[in-house]
Amino acid sequence: MEQTLSIIKPDAVKKGVVGKIIDRFESNGLRIAAMKKIWLSKADAKQFYIIHKDRPFYNELVSFMVSGPVVVMVLEGDNAVLKNRDLMGATNPKEAKAGTIRADFADNIDANAVHGSDSLENAKIEIAFFFGKREIH
Ligand code: CMP
User: Fold this and answer.
1) Which of 20, 56, 82, 135 has the fewest Cβ atoms within 10 angstroms?
2) How far is CA 129 from CA 45, 48, 49, 73, 74, in A?
3) What is the CA(31)–ligand 1 centre distance, in A?
């Protein structure tokens, strides 16, 4: 059993597709172990994506992530990290397979509806960034 972090980004929250995205997870064997709606501060967004700090898209990414509230979740299940990434589809929605969350709900590579941890190691770091142990059930 693995845990992974999922963020429903400001574009998807604004569109009102939170429930539809959560249904993709629950219908595919990922259980919601923790969930909250928050509005990230600029400092939090910068820290969360610190791994990308030298990439040309970093500032735009941070600005986008603070443009509205997000829903953060801990998803739990067999192969949760990989399963979540398969359900999300490619980072760029133009390359995402039909039926994936990004193909169905994302507008472009910045406003791409969801974030998911890319490895078990990063999942642990990202979960601890948002949730205390007493918030995960
Ligand atoms: P996410 O999975 O949240 O991780 C980093 C984000 O940076 C990514 O989704 C995209 O929304 C955004 N991004 C913008 N441009 C790029 C790019 N060229 N390569 C990867 N990620 C990008």
Assistant:
1) 56
2) 11, 8, 11, 12, 11
3) 25
Q: Considering the entire predicted model, what is its pTM? A: 0.97
CB-CB contact of 101 with 4 (8 Å): no
What single-letter DSSP state applies at residue 33? E
24/29 Cα distance (integer angstroms) = 9
Q: Is the CB of 122 under 6 A from ligand 1?
A: no
Q: How many CB atoms lie within 10 A of CB 120?
A: 14
Determine if ligand 1 sits within 6 Å of the CB of residue 117: no
Question: How far from each other are the two terminal CA atoms of the chain, in whole angstroms?
Answer: 14
Per-residue pLDDT of the chain (137 residues; tens, 9 = 90+): 999 999 999 999 999 999 999 999 999 999 999 999 999 999 999 999 999 999 999 999 999 999 999 999 999 999 999 999 999 999 999 999 999 999 999 999 999 999 999 999 999 999 999 999 999 99
CA dist 86 to 91, 103, 116, 119, Å?
Answer: 11, 12, 10, 13
